[in-house]
Amino acid sequence: MAEKQKHNSTFQVVTDTILASLEEGVAPWVKPWNSNGLGLPANGKTKKTYQGINQILLSMAQVSGEFSSSKWLSFKQAVDLGGSVKGQKSQAFVVFYKRRAKFEGQWLSAKKESELIAEGMGSQIERIPFLTKTPVFNLDQVSGLPESFFEEEQASLEKTREFESPGIYEAVIQLMRQNNVKLLRNQDKAAYSPLRDIIIMPPIQSFITKEDFCSTLLHEIGHWTGHQDRLDRDLSGKFGDEKYAFEELVAEISSAMMCAQLNIDGFLQHAEYIASWIDVLKNDNRAFFKAVKQAQDASEYLLNNAKPEFEQDQGQDQGQEEYEEVSALPMAS
């Protein structure tokens, strides 16, 4: 029974989704986020951008479904807006936490919980969070929405495109300076030294494009956020072990998130780690959630120290009100 519950858990469903992509040699968090001009995955009703795991899952679904929109709706939201998804079965989903109430070892119905609270026994109720999921539908799958909705959608899309700027190198360097990141240029490799607390980078001319340079630099800045004086992650892993692979996963996802914020076409920087990441995820079906959470923390750390022009809407949105987002070697490369 325990094995069956593990297999059917939302954690396992998400992990299996990520593993399937990795086993095909594709890192699902790496995508030319805004190269199609559609922007990040967002809720079509509230306009809030999805965060963390949900951002990655919906980006994957957008690509696999060949959708022309980055906006998503729950079934109820689509109906509330006057649309219809009848006959449509969505393969896309978002995950969120709910809480179940327990009293004296027994699970409570919502009615019984309310009764106990009314009797003044609310403080004795144990509330246990659990991860669950719900299907969402891309706008391409919804029919019957009013014209006014699409006028707002077009205005939002044009605003996204206006934000795009060719000065991505300048944006990354400015972000780095605002966070007081120490950078040593013109070296023979890209790496971060926790001991010296410094990033080293090859000359920009050694990269094929500025985007390549910037996404690599953002990867190293991701490691930089893990220093004991910042987010204090475990940077003691050695090449080839699980700690090292996990930290590389955090830095990879953090880089992808920052590329998304700055409209940079990211790319997979360490394909040689895919096998190690597969092992990590197979050993722990919550590992990817932990990595995404730490990557989200790293991205938010950088953006919180930056000036307002780097800050975009970080509001959490899961489509329904009750959703709660789930968001050493001397050198780490």
TrEMBL record:
Annotated region described as Disordered, given as residue ranges: 304-333
InterPro entries named in the record: Antirestriction_ArdC, ArdC_N, MPTase-PolyVal
Any one GO molecular function term: single-stranded DNA binding
Organism phylogeny: Bacteria, Pseudomonadati, Pseudomonadota, Gammaproteobacteria, Methylococcales
Origin: domain of life: Bacteria
Keyword check for Nucleotide-binding: no
Composition bias type Acidic residues, residue spans: 311-325
Pfam families from the UniProt entry: ArdcN, MPTase-PolyVal
Occurrences of domain N-terminal (ranges): 12-136
Domain (Polyvalent protein metallopeptidase): residue spans on this chain: 173-293
Alphabetic keyword roster: Plasmid
The keyword Nucleus is annotated on this UniProt entry: no
Name assigned to this protein: Zincin-like metallopeptidase domain-containing protein
